[in-house]
Amino acid sequence: MSRKIVIVGGVAGGANVAAQLRRDDSESEISLFDKGEHIAFSTCGMPYYIGGVVEKRDHLLVNSEKIAQKYNIDVNTNTEVTAIDRKNKQLTYLNTAGEQTTGYDKLILAPGASAVKPDLEGLNDDRVFTLHTIPDMDDIKNAIATNKPQTCAVVGAGFVGLEMVENLKAHGMNCTIIDRSEQVMKLIDNDMAAIIEDHMKAKDVNLLLDDGLKAFSNDGATLHLTSGKRIQADMTILAVGIKPNTKLAEASDLAIGETGAIKVNSYMQTNDPDIYALGDAVQTNDVLTGIPRHVALAGPAHRQAAIVAGHLNGEVTAYTGTQGTAIFKVFDLSVGSTGLNKAVLDHLGVHYQEVTHETLSHAGYYPGAEKICIKLLFDSDKGLLYGAQVIGREGVDKRLAVLATVMKAKLTVHVLPELELGYAPPYSSPKDPINVIGYKAESKLKK
User: Which residue segments constitute the domains of the chain, with CATH numbers given?
Assistant: First the structure.
């Protein structure tokens, strides 16, 4: 049966659900509206284009016309949906032709999130930037090329902040990171964060932790911190977080969850069963504890797209929750995390054990072996894995993948010594670090 399906927003959520829908539904009319110029691009690749690792801007972009032709989708870029009339199933949108309306049978919201940009005294938009969209990236790239800044302050030590420092240093800038927390990257525990901090100091990055940005002066070149310190910077990157774009949903009386994101059920439906939502704008539940979480990662967005497309085509597969598996690069280190950290477990009052193992990424006698550190957080009784963190120069991604899989399958640390993970001197040791930390975790449970 032919239906009119309208998708608001692109990138990992909206563009993917459009493609997934068309693969299994050749009849429905599918329209996609996006207020930007591009319906799909690599957000995660932007720091590396700024740093010159990714040489061509086009490598980050997906051609909207090709997507429209390949999947027979009516793509409308530079078009902002401004209102939803749920009763009459109509949308109001604005583009170069003015304000218009269109109907829908099913509506999918993928509005994403926006970078937080505090309204600070003295902020100068010619010197102060955020990074979340292609125009943001272009502004930073052009400012570097035009103004040749020698110093940069990065406010926020999360994903964007840490990745940007490396790529700004590639331009020869003297960089300072400022963060209100006592450690970088709150996603991981403080002992693991200390490894990153030592590495950044070795790369001549200045760290100002447990401090925040209060205001600017001197045409935006002087940063006034809450501690009273003053920092001089030719440019500033604000990487203090993102906020889900919920304005359209709120105006339409769609339920907003306690995290501030759009509330959905296990099939990604809002409180209006004909309206779905996914991606960076939605609240989902933690895969283990069931607590509400707002996790803005591409992997979950892709899975949610498959859930929405399947449900619209009659499937009853549910989204089982978000695990929050993430990995990022900081100079020579790879940092991976899955599940919950100590701060969250303590907040929830969960009793757990922890174990850390530092070893070499592969056989020590084979050239190129590097230190790798693995940390597990697990149930004090049965050994169910609650969280894992991995840091090192080599082999981090594959250890993280194993631990994330173990956690998703709701297996315990008792299975880790039994895993056959493949051994040859260039890749591992006869007992992989995963096996060894499994033995260490088991010994904790026996005490």
Answer: 4-114+243-312 (3.50.50.60), 117-240 (3.50.50.60), 332-446 (3.50.50.60)
